[in-house]
């Protein structure tokens, strides 16, 4: 069993006021759920949590998993000992490199400890200097900081650094949103960003089988599985756009294809959102990235929905989006070369500046418009992810 512990820190800001318990309890449950099946014990103290009593071999796995829990801002791997001053000093001495400048910073949540924080810093500093000839104290810019955390439970934790984690708000505290999940790079990142603010995600993928392959749909399923590691229990649904696209292709002007498909998508998505108690849609649009993401195009597609559409990537460059996709582990899957339903019947010159009037004119050529939507929604398929 390791004598290390993992200290878990969460943000303070949202933990004030009446909602404090709700946020904290959700975070605790999310951590418990994440570490389910791993041998360890969890202690939930005020302002900080501790994972301990785990075998050495699982430490890196626990760290990996904690980094996927929204609401955790940083963690530190700490060494543990009891209140005995000699033991604390011995541990500090073992941690400090032989040739460096250092500082001791003590934090006492156990206020009855015989030495106060300042006295601890000085006493430990002396003991370290006595035993190591090549180290010296630098209070302002040391090479090494020994943080000493004296707890009420009889434990003292020593650590030197903190690892930044996902941050954000506990998953599930920010309402429910429907993520339009394509197989591309952007939409998984868009979902991640809203989930990071605590939003519970449901995902909807459109396919155009047999114009798009089974593998293209599988890619969306694989992406949802990756997202599940941040958004536990995410539900994925798939809807076929095939008949709708064939109808548009048959009845409307070719250059309206994408605009019309996207308005169908948004209408269908709003219905699915309402059926699944989702209060908003989330997509991966970024201004000007493609013809369907100009301000005019966004206006025309947005006009058919009456719930908020969140576009967390709207002001981001592709390389910024890719950086996040790489960090959250979706990038490699997203770049697998499978076609998206938006590429079916792709016109040579898609509209860059559509107007609502002209688009409605084209839509009026489709007599069974509502029926097509009803039919698509009625054939929705819920995917079993695990
Ligand atoms: P992505 O990398 O997310 O595929 P993109 O640059 O390819 O984005 P578009 O194809 O215009 O952009 O799609 C914009 C957004 O519309 C996507 O980010 C996604 O939210 C949604 N979307 C596109 N295709 C689909 C689909 N097949 N199923 C569900 N949502 C989709
Ligand atoms: Mg796409």
Provide an overview of this structure.
The strands form 2 sheets. Strands 1, 2, 3, 4, 5, 6, 7, 8 and 9 form a 9-stranded mixed sheet that branches. A 6-stranded mixed sheet has the order 14-13-10-11-12-15, with helices on both faces. Helix 7 (242-251) runs antiparallel to helix 8 (257-275) and helix 8 packs across helix 9 (295-302). The two termini are 31 Å apart. By secondary structure, it is of the alpha/beta class. A hairpin with a 3-residue loop joins strand 2 and strand 3 (48-52). It has helices spanning 20-34, 59-66, 85-95, 117-131, 186-196, 214-228, 242-251, 257-275, 295-302, 318-328, 331-334, 356-363, 369-378; strands at residues 4-10, 41-44, 48-52, 72-81, 101-108, 136-137, 144-150, 156-159, 163-164, 176-180, 200-207, 235-240, 280-282, 309-310, 381-383. 37% of the residues are buried. The structure holds adenosine-5'-triphosphate and magnesium ion.
Q: What keyword list fits this structure?
A:
single chain; alpha/beta; 6-stranded mixed sheet; 38% helix; binds adenosine-5'-triphosphate; binds magnesium ion
